C-alpha cells in the first residue's frame, strides 16, 4: 500500500535568513506565509519535487539537502516534510504575492500557515545551525 501523500517544503537559507513566500490563493489562506514547495507527484522523489517546485514557484535552481524536523500531519492526512536547500540565484514570486528573506527575529512578523507555525522552533534551530 502506498504511504501517505507528502507535501515538501523547502528551507532555503542565505546569510542567516530563511526564504518565505506569501500565498495568493485559495481565498482562505491567501496572504498567509509558507515555505516554497508542494505535492510530491506519483513516482517522483521528495528531492525532485523540492527542485521542481522551487523552479516553478521561484524561478530558481536549488540543491536539496537533508530533511529538517519531523513530518507534520496536515488536515486530511497528508504529511508536510521540510528539506533544507541552498541556492545562489535570486528568487522571484512567480505564483505568490511576495517572497521575503526572514531573520530569526522576523519569524514572528508574518502570519504563517498553521503547520508552519508549529515548525517555527525547528526553523529557528535550523537557522542557528542546531538542527
Ligand atoms: N508549499 C507548502 N505547502 C504547505 C506548507 N505548509 C502547509 O500547511 N502547506 C499545505 C498548503 C496546501 O494545503 C498544501 C500544498 O499545496 P500547494 O498548493 O502548495 O501544492 P501544489 O503546488 O502541489 O498544488 P496542488 O496541485 O496539490 O493543488 O500544503 C508549506 O510550508 N509549503
Please give a structural write-up:
This protein has helices at residues 46-58, 114-127; strands at 6-14, 17-22, 33-34, 37-39, 63-73, 79-86, 98-102. It has 131 residues and is α+β, with helices and mostly antiparallel strands. The chain has a single domain (6-126), classed as Nucleoside Triphosphate Pyrophosphohydrolase (Alpha-Beta Complex). Strand 5 (63-73) and strand 6 form a beta hairpin. The termini are far apart. 8-OXO-2'-deoxyguanosine-5'-triphosphate (8DG) binds at residues 7, 9, 34-35, 37-39, 74, 80, 113, 115-116. Keywords: DNA damage, DNA repair, DNA replication, Hydrolase, Magnesium, Metal-binding, Mutator protein. This is 8-oxo-dGTP diphosphatase. It comes from Kibdelosporangium phytohabitans.
The DSSP helix count reads: 2
Query: Based on helices, strands and strand pairing, what is the structural class?
Result: alpha+beta
Total number of distinct structural domains: 1
- Which fold name is given in CATH as the topology? Nucleoside Triphosphate Pyrophosphohydrolase
| CATH architectural label | Alpha-Beta Complex
Radius of gyration: 14 Å
Helix share bin = 10-25%
Bound molecules: 8-OXO-2'-deoxyguanosine-5'-triphosphate
The top level CATH class name = Alpha Beta
What general form does the structure show?
globular
Largest sheet composition: 7 strands, mixed
Strand content: 25-35%
The sequence of SSEs as H and E is EEEEHEEEH
Distance between the termini: 32 Å
Mean pLDDT: 96
The CATH superfamily bears the name Nucleoside Triphosphate Pyrophosphohydrolase
Low-confidence stretches: none
Number of strands: 7
Amino acid at each position: 500500500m502506498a504511504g501517505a501523500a507528502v507535501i515538501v517544503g523547502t528551507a532555503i537559507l542565505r546569510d542567516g535568513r530563511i526564504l518565505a513566500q506569501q500565498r495568493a490563493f485559495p481565498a482562505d489562506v491567501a496572504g498567509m506565509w509558507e515555505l516554497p514547495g508542494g505535492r510530491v507527484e506519483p513516482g517522483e522523489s521528495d528531492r525532485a519535487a523540492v527542485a521542481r517546485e522551487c523552479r516553478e514557484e521561484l524561478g530558481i535552481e536549488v540543491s536539496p539537502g537533508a530533511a529538517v524536523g519531523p513530518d507534520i500531519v496536515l488536515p486530511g492526512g497528508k504529511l508536510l516534510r521540510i528539506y533544507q536547500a541552498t541556492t545562489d540565484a535570486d528568487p522571484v514570486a512567480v505564483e505568490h504575492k511576495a517572497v521575503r528573506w526572514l531573520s530569526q527575529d522576523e519569524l514572528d512578523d508574518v502570519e504563517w500557515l498553521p503547520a508552519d507555525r508549529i515548525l517555527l522552533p525547528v526553523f529557528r534551530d535550523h537557522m542557528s545551525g542546531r538542527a
